[in-house]
Amino acid sequence: MSLRNIGHRLYQGEVSFDFVGRRKLWYSISAVIVLVAAIGLAMGLHLGIEFKGGSVYTVHKPGLTVSQAKDVANKITGSNTALVQTTDKGDVRVQISAEESVSATTFTKEFSQAVGVEEKDINAQVIGPSWGADISKKALTGLVIFMVLVTVYLAIAFEWRMALAALVALIHDLLITIGVYALVGFEVTPGTVIGFLTILGYSLYDTVVVFDTVKENTRGLTKQSRRTYSEAANHGLNQTLVRSINTTVVALLPVSALLFIGGGLLGAGTLNDISLALFIGLAAGAYSSICVATPLLAQLKEQTPEMKALVKRVMQRRASEARAAEEAEARGEDVMIDEELAAGMVGQRNQPTGRARGKGRPSGKR
Hints:
Blueprint: H1 3-12, H2 23-42, E1 46-47, H3 49-52, E2 54-59, H4 66-77, E3 83-86, E4 92-97, H5 104-115, E5 122-127, H6 129-157, H7 160-184, E6 187-188, H8 190-217, H9 229-239, H10 241-265, H11 272-302, H12 305-331, H13 339-344, H14 354-358
Parallel strand pairs: 1-6
Antiparallel strand pairs: 2-4, 2-5, 3-4
Helix pairs in contact: 1-9, 2-7, 2-11, 4-5, 6-7, 6-8, 7-8, 7-11, 8-9, 8-11, 9-11, 10-11
């Protein structure tokens, strides 16, 4: 079966995956992932010199390997804290923490002598700790402002429950991405912050698309008794499922090229900072918009008095229709199934068997 046919059947309600009904499963999975990420975060992030201060030396020498440059840098500083990467231009980038008491002039002179390169081929950049602290403060301020604006926008455009569900999904994605960063030991740079903000925007975009469909499906929901809010929300989620998957796959392809080909095969270490944040964040954002935001929204809505009353009416109607169907089945009469009710149920919708059983039989009492 083609993806296009699956998408059409999901949109029409002929096939449905019960994401909302299995929210406890998704919550458990998210809790485990976030716990692992929190453990990694507790181990500490490897901040770049832009945030903690230090010196960066870019060395242009063909044939110089990362291991050779790291050994020389550690010997000069008397520690093993030097971070060495290759750039996209083939140069070697050596980063020394501000805690090391080695001046830029001394390091450049000794390093050039050790690797056999002229001092003019070493570009030194020194960043003070106060400047790094200021950058960290600005990055945190930008993130907080982003969160506040997102919450206000969603509360105005939709409602506060949708805003809360989207905010939880955003924090979920951010914690996972930062935790993975800490676990793998990648350096946090301004490019990483840009990646964080990008994935939060993507996660928000995907969540808003799903919420917009849910809003359309639940308009005037309390005036009927065929489906609950959770069922209507789950139907809206299934309608946008293929679109979310396609968007995520298309977005992950170029990011995967940056991470695995650019940073891995080609050795451009500077690409790892932003590409890892994008890769983890895009995947987490797609998961959270489907398995966290919408189920949480449905759970919050089901706590309202009007939705509790709706659930009661739906259950009463279904029980009444089930009894009527059993009585009709016992009399050998045709069993008619409410098509709108069937559309609200999860799982694959089957054709009623009672119609075929009663076909050709005379009507009236037997």
